[in-house]
Write a structure and sequence with these properties.
Layout: E1 4-13, E2 16-26, E3 31-35, H1 42-49, E4 57-62, E5 65-66, H2 71-75, E6 78-81, H3 93-103, H4 108-121, H5 137-146, E7 155-159, H6 167-182, E8 186-191, H7 194-200, E9 203-208, E10 211-216, H8 218-225, H9 230-237
Parallel strand pairs: 3-8, 3-9, 6-7, 7-8
Antiparallel strand pairs: 1-2, 1-4, 4-5, 9-10
Helix pairs in contact: 3-5
The structure holds adenosine-5'-diphosphate and magnesium ion.
Length: 247
């Protein structure tokens, strides 16, 4: 069974279409990277899959569960890391993680060893016991990422994972993603960083003005467009304007 199936997904804000007609199917163990310039509709897409926005049209199935019909069941299979990580200011990183574990009713001895491993891997230092109001964007993001290892979701949605991270942290984040993949997780990552897509994606999509202009592997992409350089392809594909849907 597919981990994620998106059918004719559309989202309109007022009169403006943020997402025009999206169709995507992802299997277990895939890393899908959705590339696109600012305002292309990437965050909107992730929020729709995370169940934070209701679609104007279309359906989303997570492991066969219709998100609109059984939202709680579907959301339990999903982990979402937003581009603006939010942690209550007056909680420390550790308290936040414990709080999330509580929400998912996960026992401490169930996640503590896994968690300690992750803290090392993501290079989370003693600052885990400082109030999160002192954290940088990158530090918050690392704490939020720990959630993924708590409720063990099959589908992981990540918005702009590299923003605010130093090179060493980006490398450990990349390694963490590849590790999640070997555990059979499916990753859906939105970014405008081309080099990241090159390094990590098993499948890539390019979105421009709410429309997917390409979805396949990177090598297929260079073949179709006749361009070797992904940068050229990306620029080329994000220039032509899509047609507006009627409904
Ligand atoms: N909550 C919202 N209300 C109104 N318009 C929105 C909202 N969220 C996004 N948009 C619009 O939808 C379009 C796509 O935005 P977004 O999905 O955030 O793009 P990206 O993440 O690719 O930069 C933009 O034109 C944006 O202004
Ligand atoms: Mg965005």
């Amino acid at each position: 069974m597919k981990t994620l199936v998106i059918k004719e997904l559309r989202k309109r804000f007022g009169k403006a279409w943020a997402l025009k007609n999206l169709n995507i199917e992802l299997d277990r163990g895939e890393i899908f990277v959705l590339l696109g310039p600012n305002g292309a509709g990437k965050t909107t897409t992730l929020k729709l899959i995370a169940g934070l926005f209701h679609p104007t049209h279309g359906d989303i199935f997570i492991k066969g569960i219709n998100l609109a019909k059984e939202p709680l069941k579907a959301k339990r299979l999903t982990g979402y890391i937003p581009d603006e990580p939010f942690i209550y200011n007056k909680l420390t990183g550790r308290e936040f993680i414990n709080f999330i574990a509580g929400i998912y009713k996960i026992n401490k001895d169930q996640y503590e060893s896994q968690m300690n491993l992750l803290l090392r891997k993501l290079d989370i230092g003693e600052w885990i016991d400082d109030f999160s109001e002192t954290y940088s964007h990158g530090m918050k993001q690392k704490i939020i990422m720990c959630q993924l290892f708590l409720h063990n979701p099959d589908l992981i949605l990540i918005d702009e994972p590299l923003v605010g991270l130093d090179p060493k942290s980006s490398k450990s984040v990349r390694e963490t993603f590849l590790q999640l993949r070997t555990q059979g997780k499916t990753l859906f990552i939105c970014t405008h960083t081309l080099s990241f897509a090159k390094e990590i994606a098993s499948k890539i999509g390019i979105i421009h003005k709410g429309e997917l202009s390409f979805i396949d592997t990177l090598s297929e992409l260079s073949e179709i467009s006749g361009e070797k350089d992904i940068e050229e392809i990306y620029l080329k594909l994000s220039q032509k304007d899509p047609v507006e849907p009627e409904t």
